[in-house]
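#struct-help
A.M.: can someone run this one for me? Single chain, 158 residues.
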Amino acid sequence: MSIALGKLLAVALGVGLLTGCASRAARPAPSARAEPSTEGKAPRTYLGEGLASYYGPGFHGRKTANGERFDQNAMTAAHRTVRFGTCLRVVNMENGKSVEVRVNDRGPFKDDRVIDVSLGAARKLEMVEKGLARVRLYRCKDEEPSSAFSIPLQALPG
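D.P.: on it. Structure tokens below:
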């Protein structure tokens, strides 16, 4: 009887060890989190938070990383990794102001910053006086990105 008990104990120990080594359910990556839905609006993909800065007068009229001319009054931004043309919602966590910007440049080039917005966007976020603001970034919409090869949709008559 003690041999049977020993085998049972060995099997139970083996199952316990195997269970302990099994992979755990993965948590969704931070980029998969969504902003809570508001009435009638689709959730937005959360991209992160950190410090935002702005740029303007010294760069006005110069070419951006995507080749267009920088307009300090336009609603544009520089981001390190987001695809050019992507619309981002930038929310100032200090005052609740938000703005939608289009990524057309690369940056910021300071490690502690997550985005550089144009002077026009900084004005809407009410961050010009301080120069920096703590922000959250969201994609404007959760939709398929368009490419240079996408066919524009035609308006239907009627």
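A.M.: thanks! Helices lie at 2-21, 119-125.
D.P.: also worth noting: The beta strands are 46-55, 76-78, 87-92, 98-105, 113-118, 132-139.
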